[in-house]
Amino acid sequence: MKKILLFIVLICAGASFSCNKEVLDKRPLNIISDADVFKDPALINAYLTQIYFDMPVLGNDCNANGAFDGDASWHAFDINDVSDESFPQFRDWNPSNAFTYKYGNLNIGGGLLDWWGYNTVRNINQFLEKLPSSPLPADEVKAKIAEARFLRAFCYFSMVKRYGGIPLITKVQDANEPEETLYPVRATEQAVYDFIIAEAGESSADLPEVVSTDNLGRPSKYAALALKSRAALYAASIAQFGKVELGGVVGIPSSAAQGYYQASFDASQAIIKSGKYALYNADANKAMNFRNIFLVKNNSEVIFAKRHDNVNRDAGGNGWGVDFFNCPRPQAWSRGLYEQSYLDFAESFEMVDGTSGKLDRAALATKLVTTDELWGNRDPRFFATFYTQNTAWKGTKLDFHAGIRLPDGSIKTDGAYNGIPATGEQDYQGTGIGVLKYLDEAHDNMAGANSAWATSAQDWLIFRYAEILLNNAEAAFELGNTAEAITSINQVRTRAGIKTLGALTREQIHHERKVELAFEGQRYWDVRRWRTAVADLSIRWSGIRYILDGASGKFQIQFIENVDGSSRIPQFRQENYYLPITNGRTANNPKLVENPGYK
Predict the structure, then answer these.
(1) Secretion signal: which residues (predicted)?
(2) Helices 221-241 and 257-274 meet at what angle, rounded to 10?
């Protein structure tokens, strides 16, 4: 990056931490040379701030940036909606790029979750090369270099989990360099993971143990170890369950699996034994306690978060769109309920005694029930993750009913019966289950704040302690240390308020991640690394309808099969374990071999 456009107001607003406003006094807003930038501490900070802003993947793997493309709008939910968790339910609009690609339409043209972050990597490489000659004190240079290395490792992790092996570029390229440098080949997937794991581990040594209040949103030592924990776990399972193709450009030899599990375990253990973090457990009500993990800023569980405020990005803020899009009605666009969970996914949440939460659909079709009878005695995380019929919200109860059952057994779907509207105020054409996780009941979803939709101040939790316990459990189990795995899993289940386990299987570990980390951007990547996505994501899922019985106030339950629509059949194909490099990129660099299965 030869020149920098100093749009400092935008830079400061878009980052997850504050920027020194003395920058505004240094020079008019014009083009400033790199040499000037790395002589000025304020401009150095602005440069690093811009790197955060240029990493939309920090916001739930968003693949775009800006007021209408990043996590300020609906793209924060794409990663959930392309999995078996949910689908985007604005039926006349469906702006999510997940909506199209979920149904077998991912091809060599790409477009799904696409992020080729080499512009950002180049800027980081330049920062790493230029900073040592800056006037900053040596200890500050050391810390900022560690921070930049962490961010570069995060960039590479965001790409390798998408595409497999990619070019490893660790210095600034110059136009006069030889062709083999300017047009690099793809490194092996193993080499990229090794680089990420090494960078995360080494940067952890120079990052602060505790991030100061004025630097919240920057990584600590334990954020780097959390990245190592997650990346090594991904590499291990790819080695264990995947296959090597293209000479190792995709896939990792199975012989490497145990080493990666050990690296993940060691990083998780370092975080656990540090005593710096703990499962959030401040509320007696287990459901409310789980909700507050995502509402209470800087709580004991937060290792690394993307910081948000409640001001729209186009107005100089860093808010995001979770409340406005996912809230129940009323909502300013008369919509809400954008991301709706499949009934099948909601049934994954067990009963408090550890038995299956799957509904007896045949029995329910023959009787009337209350919502307490339908959903009672469930894992409290269910009530913190979903909202549905009779969920308490803003002093009332949500009403999803889609018709009234008359005394003669017929169903009235328009008008009213005995003064009761035939349909409730919530969306009864979707799945019947909204996503409550991250929603703030105090948010004003009727406001179009700052000339756009109302935005949310909840921080996005990139790494939290419960994930580290689950990473620890999975790695320990695959290493043969079942006792350690059970201990970690049971800590999570005890905090949740459900029965602990006396024995453990791989399937139970996978299930616990599915439930605990629901709608946190983890499920899609998990089923890909376990190589179960072809089965798990190629299913015709269902929804639920509540028919209000006019006489008793109970409900007749209807199950809606193929809730995505008769012509929309979820399909994850074998080649989709890697996203395509795309024709555009292979045309620009013919040495970039395309991933298997894309033509």
Answers:
(1) 1-21
(2) 150
